Amino acid sequence: MQYDPIKHTLGQVFNQTPALRKLFYRLLDLLLLRAWHVRKELKKAEFPENFAILDAGSGFGQYSYRMSRMFPGATILAVDVKEEQIADCNRFFGQINRAKRVRFEVADLTRFVQADKFSLILSIDVMEHIEEDVLVFKNFHQSLKTGGILLISTPSDQGGSDVHDHHPDEGVHGFVDEHVRDGYNFGEIEDKLRSAGFSRVEARYSYGAPGKLSWRLSMKYPIQLLGLSKLFFALLPFYYLFVFPVAAFLNYMDVKGKHATGTGLIVKAWK
Q: Fewest CB within 10 A of the end CB: N or C in the chain?
């Protein structure tokens, strides 16, 4: 299953007005469990009043939007390889008068370095798409200020790409066939981050038992239906009317719980 065609369709629908874009961001915040975990970590962290953030692999821009609200004194540079999404985001942030604080640029993370610039680097569901991950970690380390934090959300090796449920026709990466690896384990990602220069690394599982069920209900099954036909867009509001309360409760339980295993990892590393 490939996300990009569905992402493109969603972008066309929600990019029509700033109000729809904000609604889209709100829906992503509510439905995506990783957004709940990232929000938890950002609330716990302490930063200077005025500091610089790098959103490394910004996608639709929803995390940059959230951080621009959480940290009104921060400046945010958001980078991605997809020119169309960068243009859309710059246009939207200009429309809501945040272009002075939030800027989007096309960049390849294997080549991107701004030495000693950022107090926070956010990398959400990015590293599983990049073969040269250690090189990117080194670039992140160089780009952070001393004491700065790198926050990563990425699949674990416990089925993070839904690999254990794959159908033979879907290939080795199961539900998501855009990943270059199925996921990290604690030791692997810690070793790679330390080899890149990071002095301290912490990791925990996300998408434990509650999160895995929530993901299937709120994301996997709807996306599979949309992959069959765009006509299912008309049914989504009715589907989520029943599914959302259950998924939100499961997300809450996943964020509050401590998981012995899980299909996602939340990783923090300090320079």
A: N
